[in-house]
Specification:
By secondary structure, the protein is α+β, with helices and mostly antiparallel strands. It has a domain of about 325 residues: Cytochrome P450 (Cytochrome p450, Orthogonal Bundle), CATH 1.10.630.10. Helix content is about 45%, strand content about 15%. It contains 15 helices and 17 strands. The radius of gyration is 23 Å and the shape is globular.
Length: about 475
């Protein structure tokens, strides 16, 4: 009798053969399907190319903690060498290794506690300016309102009030430039007629934008006393190797704006929608505002005294994370799960999918802020601002923005959904944003909170409770 060695069969690699356009058309749906089919790691293969997707905290940690093997790739369109587009995309989020470490050190001063506290008056003024145009009885597209609000906030914090007209003009151009990068970024993988037609337009806009930011830098350098906006702080930042060059300042300004503007606008818009659909949560939040603020504007000392607000924001960013996925690129051969990956393999991680894993979060599609009482997930299980050595520098500023804007809005107006309104959500480029107007009705507080049934693809991401009319206890009137 001949004895033969018996070996366990090698399991097949978790691969789905298809088209990258499946991912670009609806990233959330594609990632959900890959997760359902393959578990914590999967590959989407298109011909001879593949993209790897990781979904679990364990693999998020493997990718995000190893900055040597996995490099960041923020912009899909870097532009020709020595072009304005290449310089504008050369900010912190697209840097790696020692360059990233040094630039991050220089940037940290503009995100210090002292600097962030100094931005507080600008937040208040910007929200007051927005609310001055709101009237009881209106139906408003709050995503459009929050986008305009964050344009104002980001422009003034980054460039200052002293040159407000130029600040807002630069902000509008950066907004348009970021939008074009998102629209054309996927097309750069497989250029088509649309990409070719608009690529030159993007390069032209980058040239205009670079000139405007250079003008702002020159104005800041001529100021007799340093201002307290972010750009002025960056101009003054130095280490043992000196300060930032003008080219570095321009790249950092553009990338900082692009990283903060639309993600914060989406978070504020989604949070207002979630509260409009959950009147009992809103009642609890308003009671906290009444107890802590009594109708006044939040001051710095108030921001850590509102635990219900903290839980609401954290839960909003869990269930509807504005930054739904991001990407790394392998720099060397690596083993990841069952895969042996060559250099230059794209690896995608997704807060959207990780935040909806039932093994991490009970009833993950439900908006339940109280889940955060006693819940303390790992940084790689809850990552609305990323995780690891490249954790977003602006997370504290973003949280302060939310903790100032939401009480100011919700103490002034009762916000409710529009019956039967269609609200569609789609991951466009990397961001989860509304693709239809995010319509909410604003009224004066009268002690009643009411939710209504809405329709649209938002139901693919969130399970809303039945519509209800809720009579508030004390604390819901201002």
């Amino acid at each position: 009798m001949i004895l033969r060695e018996v070996r366990d069969p090698i399991p097949p690699e978790p691969v789905t053969d298809g088209s990258f356009w499946q991912f670009t058309a609806d990233p959330a749906d594609c990632m959900r399907r890959l997760r359902a089919a393959h578990g914590e790691i999967a590959a989407l293969r298109d011909g001879g190319q593949q993209v790897i997707f990781v979904f679990s905290p364990r693999l998020n940690h493997a990718v995000l903690s190893d900055t040597q093997a996995y490099h960041a790739r923020f912009f899909g369109i870097r532009g020709p060498r020595n072009s304005a587009q290449r310089r504008l995309t050369s900010g912190l989020l697209s840097m790696n290794d020692e360059q990233h470490k040094r630039q991050r050190r220089l940037l940290m001063g503009s995100f210090s506690r002292k600097a962030i506290d100094g931005y507080h008056p600008r937040l208040i003024e910007s929200v007051e300016t927005m609310l001055a145009d709101w009237r009881a009885g209106q139906t408003r597209d709050v995503y459009r309102d929050m986008t305009a609000l964050m344009l104002r906030i980001t422009s003034t914090i980054l460039f200052g009030f002293d040159q407000s007209e130029l600040s807002c003009e630069i902000g509008r151009k950066i907004e348009r430039w970021v939008g074009m990068n998102h629209q054309l970024g996927i097309g750069a993988l497989v250029p088509d007629e649309y990409f070719t037609r608009h690529y030159e337009e993007l390069l032209g806009l980058a040239g205009e934008l670079e000139k405007d930011i250079q003008q702002m830098i020159d104005l800041k350098r001529r100021e007799p006393t340093p201002a307290h906006d972010m750009l002025s702080i960056l101009i003054a930042a130095h280490d043992e190797q000196g300060g930032m060059t003008d080219e570095e300042l321009i790249g950092q300004a553009c990338v900082l704006f692009g990283a903060a503007h639309l993600t914060s606008a989406a978070t504020l818009g989604w949070t207002l929608l979630l509260l409009a659909q959950h009147p009992r949560v809103t009642a609890e939040l308003l009671a906290e505002f009444q107890a802590v603020l009594g109708g006044r504007v939040p001051q710095l000392e108030d921001l850590d005294r509102m635990p219900v607000l903290e839980r609401v924001i954290k839960e909003s960013m869990r269930v509807l994370p504005a930054s739904s996925y991001s990407q790394r690129m392998t720099t060397q051969p690596v083993e990841l799960g069952p895969f042996r990956l060559p250099p230059r393999t794209p690896v995608v991680f997704s807060p959207l999918i990780t935040h909806h894993l039932p093994e991490l979060y009970d009833e993950p599609e439900r908006f339940r802020p109280d889940r955060w009482i006693g819940l303390n997930p790992s940084p790689y299980a809850y990552l609305p601002f990323g995780a690891g050595p490249r954790l977003c520098l602006g997370s504290s500023l973003a949280m302060m923005t939310f903790k100032v804007a939401l009480p100011m809005i919700l103490q002034r107006f009762r916000v409710s959904s529009v019956p039967g309104c269609e609200i569609n959500a789609l991951v466009q480029s990397t961001m989860l944003t509304p693709t239809t107007p995010l319509l909410l009705k604003i009224d004066r507080h009268d002690g009643t909170l009411e939710s209504h049934s809405i329709c649209g693809t938002i139901h693919n991401l969130v399970t809303f409770p039945a519509a209800e009319k809720y009579q508030c206890p004390l604390g819901c009137r201002f």
